[in-house]
Design a protein that fits this description.
Length: 344
């Protein structure tokens, strides 16, 4: 099938359109609205999103919280600079990490952070060369991490982040992500309140975003691509909100690809959501039949990425690529701190 080739998901993006800094006002981003059936687009401001939503619609947000997962340390014994990126917790004080430079971190290596406030010992080498590190410290790990760690911004953002909270949604609650669910960055508390007053139902799910989100697809036939797995949780009360809205004929609109993957992972064949927690490595690409979502709020994604494939599954590859060409012509801002798209 033609659509399964990686190069079919490429597009031209001028470097200067990659947003380097968040806007002062979260909801002042531009919003492209895409009709998934016709491919027609229109241009708005994100704060106007309520005019496209109807009372009873259910907006599903991912309330994961990004941890300041990038630690700069030095190798005990040689003082060589070591960068450690926390990927996921394996057990209480043991984390799977990405280490640079990896060749200096064999099993048994000890790295010191913050002048010894935190130390980590490499205890094993995991898949893809990731290191399992056991941390030692006095006090509370999360407090030390908040003091020493930096936000793990994606590689295409080269500017320093002045305020850690700007790489966090206003509803971030459950710590565990190595990257932000960026579609949610456009919401303010005021905007969410306005939507609820209008009768929009807001349901929470949690999916801890891994750095695999930024991992390029390296196979030409995308069917050969293996997705990273991420931890998700849906509480009973939130599953009930989503199921009730769907049963009443209202639309389920996911905020972001992470909410989409969570919902589609937790749904049964009839599209009902089960309260559940576990790991998902669902890969959504054209040909996928959505069981839950009717619409999606999302940012503009990297060429040849699994996220671009997911939105193409919802709106059609040709419609998406045409919309992206329009976005480039209209000088939309791309990627994590960029503008938004509403697909309905």
């Amino acid at each position: 099938m033609q659509e399964m080739h990686l190069h079919d998901y490429d597009y031209e993006l001028p470097q200067e359109l990659i947003a380097q800094d968040p806007l002062e006002d979260r909801s002042a981003s531009r919003l492209m609205v895409l009709d998934k059936k016709t491919g027609e687009t229109s241009h708005h401001i994100f704060s106007e999103i309520g005019s496209f939503l109807k009372p009873g619609d259910c907006l599903v947000i991912n309330d994961t919280k990004v941890i300041p997962a990038r630690l700069m340390g030095s190798k005990v014994g040689t003082n060589a600079s070591i960068e450690v990126l926390l990927l996921k917790r394996a057990e209480k004080d043991v984390w799977e990490t990405l280490v640079k430079p990896g060749k200096k971190c064999k099993v048994g290596t000890v790295v010191s952070f913050g002048g010894g406030l935190l130390t980590g010992e490499v205890i094993a080498i995991a898949e893809e060369g990731n290191r399992l590190i056991r941390f030692r410290y006095d006090g509370i790990f999360e407090e030390i991490l908040d003091r020493l760690g930096q936000m793990p911004l994606p590689p295409y953002i080269t500017h320093a982040l002045k305020d850690k909270n700007r790489y966090q949604t206003v509803y971030a609650k459950h710590e565990g992500s190595a990257a932000a669910p960026t579609a949610g960055l456009h919401f303010t508390r005021e905007l969410l309140s306005q939507l609820e007053e209008k009768g929009i139902v807001i349901a929470h799910v949690t999916l801890h975003v891994g750095l695999g989100t930024f991992r390029p697809v390296k196979v030409e036939n995308i069917l050969d691509h293996h997705m990273h797995s991420e931890f998700y949780r849906i509480e009973e009360s939130e599953a009930e909100k989503i199921n009730a809205a769907k049963a009443a004929g209202h639309r389920i609109i996911a905020v972001g690809t992470t909410s989409t993957r969570t919902l589609e992972s937790a749904a049964d064949a009839d599209g009902r959501i089960r309260a559940a927690s576990g790991w998902t490595d669902i890969f959504i690409y054209p040909g996928y039949r959505f069981r839950v979502i009717d619409g999606l709020i999302t940012n503009f994604h990297l060429p040849e990425s699994t996220l671009l494939m997911l939105v193409s599954a919802l709106a059609g590859r040709e419609n998406i690529l045409a919309a992206y060409r329009t976005a480039v012509e209209c000088r939309y801002r791309f990627f994590s701190f960029g503008d938004a798209m509403l697909i309905l």
